[in-house]
Design goal:
alpha/beta, 2 domains, 33% helix
Amino acid sequence: MRIQAALIGCGRIGSNKHLEAFLANRERLDLIAVCDLKPERAERVADAYATRAGKRPAVFTDYRKTLSAGIEMAAIATESGNHFTIAMDCLNSKVHTLVEKPMALSVSEMDGMVSEAKARSVKLGVCFQNRFNPAVQEVVKKLRENAFGRVFTATARILWNRDEAYYKQANWRGTWRFDGGTLMNQCSHNIDLLQWILGGEVDQVSAVIRNYRHPYLEVEDFGAALISFKNGSVGILEGTANVYPRNLEETLSIFGETGTVVLGGLAVNKIQTWQFPGESGHPFNALPDPESVYGSGHIPLYQDFYEAIAQNREPAISGEEGKKAVEIILGIYRSHKEKRAIPFPLAPFQTTDMAGVKL
């Protein structure tokens, strides 16, 4: 079966990775509508799709009108602060909804999205596409085989550069209401992988955040955190947008009784260290980098979401899964604000609760 779909948001990632995923999955997904507040962006995406697919989707500037265009699925790639409102309207209309990370910017909004999807019997998925990286899948395979033994710690380091020109691309960037800082925007993929690999159930978070080099922003450009999990493992996080003069690394290191792995590359796509009894090194160290930090996971992510609809199962990265990394980041923000370790489950909190907090 083919599912009629819409792309809502045709900006930086919508016009790139989401368009690419729709094209690669066009035997499964029929992109019949594209929407953006700026009509010229939607027109460009429609033209690009038509050139390769031979069929031009309808163009809208109001996402609500796409809901009456006969769509069964929507992919949301707008600014983060509008994910909740758009997703809730889609879910309420019984439209299967795939939303870019972060799925929302508050605990209550994320819970509301999950509840609405269940109430309407539709699928809710979140774009943490790096879980589909072949290198990440190799680690998951070893975890399932218990090759690490007990996993003690994992360290996520996102050492990037984001200059003023990046933030000036759109007025929503670097705001508590619509974005969050470097942890919520640049670091959420690696935080998702860290919590997924370490077991997902957080005990407490202790953190500090700063704004070192971006005084025109109200959000953080650096964060460091200790994340304690209920299974006894500990996650260590360092994220920054201040590396001079350009991006340095994004790595995820996993340390167990009988295994050590370091994932790196442009989008956590290479295996830099691979140590198990009888194994030293891995051919995935030689994999080429993808063309951008977005990686190449949107195509299999879309395929999985289609199969979840067709098979009436949960997507690999469901709303419940997509919440976890965002809750950790909100816990980090709360820890900095209240200057204490924050226990989980996380009490209601949202990015706008950080307004006016000294960084």
